[in-house]
Amino acid sequence: MTGYAEVRAWNPDALEEVARSVRGQKDQVLGLQDELDLSFGPLFWHGSSADGARGALAGLRDRAEHVVAEAAHVQKALQDAADAVADLRRRVEELEAVAQANWFTINPDGSVRDNDPGTADPSRAATARTLADQVGHLVADAQEVDARLAEALSSAAAGEVGDHGATNLADADITSTADGKYHTGPPEKPHVEFDEDFAYDSKDPELADQAAKLKWLTQLRGAQALGLMPDATAMYEHYWDNTGAPKEWDYEKAYGEDSGIRKGVDAEVTRAARAAEEIIRSGRTDFAMTGAASGASPYPQTENWQKAVGGYQIWSHGNVKVEGNKVTMDITVEGEDRYNFNRDDADIATGAPDNDNGRFTEIGWARPFDTHGSMTRTVTWELGHPPAGLTNDATPDDGTVRGTDRDRGPTPDNPREPERNRAR
After folding, report:
1. What residues pair up with 176 in beta bridges, in sequence order?
2. Peptide bond into 353 cis (omega under 30)
3. How far, in whole angstroms, is CA 342 from its chain's centroid?
4. Which of 174, 249, 275, 364 fits 201 for a cystine, CB–CB 3.0-4.6 Å?
């Protein structure tokens, strides 16, 4: 088991050297793509021998793709371990400096020896306990680093590293972040499962439903006439179109009008930039990357966007290029939502029960639908200093959102809470 003496002797440079060696060997395999593409024999070769050759070549290509994926996996694990070991060594040096300054010694087994036991200072015992606690935390962290690297190496040796369905060597060269939420490669839209509390066309309409319909549509038309909350009313009218067809929302507009949505987008950009920095440390300097979905936070602050989008899932993908110490990332932030109503919830602004509008789904008069928004920006930063968002512009004041005469306005919709729709 890893102890304090072993951590003292750990060398991050040695791990980085092995990571560079793995990368060099991986690059040699990546250079075989042309040979694999041109290695099938005569163009008009047919028959059982040709079929056998095609099968063998397909197997060779697949194995080469897995070798590249495994090498990328090991390379990233080694680089992560090197970074972690460098941090551990820094902590060791700081601990030992504190110990020496206070006339203590940290022994190879991690115990703390008092070099001035005769002093009358009552705080020495507390100092010794603090040093011992910090040594314990350091050793525990070191054991975790050791275990993570061992697990990565074992999974590669056992052939447990997938190639994400790659069809060529370059696509198999995948690097993932330590938390597994981002990895290199083309955009991969995450699967998002939405709750549906009201089953469509599951009940028969009643006379009271006609009066309720008139009430809600009167409010819709009145709000549209005033040009209020155009994005919310557009969504609500589409709900009454009863087609269930997906509908886009204007993410750029939402970013400019709602402080909650802006903060959610900025947080995703920051996460993606930090993930890019982590991937860059593994040796990548020109790559595409894609991320997992998560609940956007905080909740929208304007009534317009609370009703139009509410709680939604956010994810991103982009292209990253490093030139010297400058990092450029073309990032696309995607928002995924389901326009529907949640049983026993209520509208944030008006308190109107969701059940009222969910009833129209149950009787088949209005249909929920998927919604989506997308925005693309370019961000740059100095390597090692990822940005905290997209812009330094003033935060939206969350005032009333109005549209033109052609826009459709407010609707008593529902505050679809973030926790109701989750990425699975």
Report:
1. 183
2. no
3. 26
4. 364
- Token digits of residue 247: 């509908």
Residue 380's DSSP bridge partners are 328
Alpha helices in 31-102 (DSSP H): 33-37, 48-101
Tokens 């371990």: give the residue.
81
Considering the entire predicted model, what is its pTM?
A: 0.70
Rounded CA-CA distance 385/273 in Å is 9
Answer for the pair 207, 200: CB distance below 8 angstroms, yes or no: no
The C-alpha angle 185, 194, 270, rounded to 5 degrees, equals 45
The reply to whether omega before 298 is within 30° of 0 (cis) is: yes
Closest CA to 95 of 134, 136, 142, 140: 134
Q: Could you tell me the residue ranges of all domains in the chain? A: 4-174, 192-423
pLDDT, averaged in runs of 10, over the chain (424 residues): 91 90 83 68 61 67 80 85 92 95 94 87 90 95 93 89 76 80 91 93 96 96 94 97 97 96 96 94 90 95 96 97 96 97 93 96 97 97 91 76 47 39 38
Place of tokens 């090991």: 74
* Contact (Cβ atoms closer than 8 angstroms) between residue 106 and residue 99: yes
Cα–Cα distance for residue pair 291/188, rounded to 1 Å: 8
| Alpha-carbon dihedral angle through residues 326, 16, 165, 28, given to the nearest 10 degrees | 90
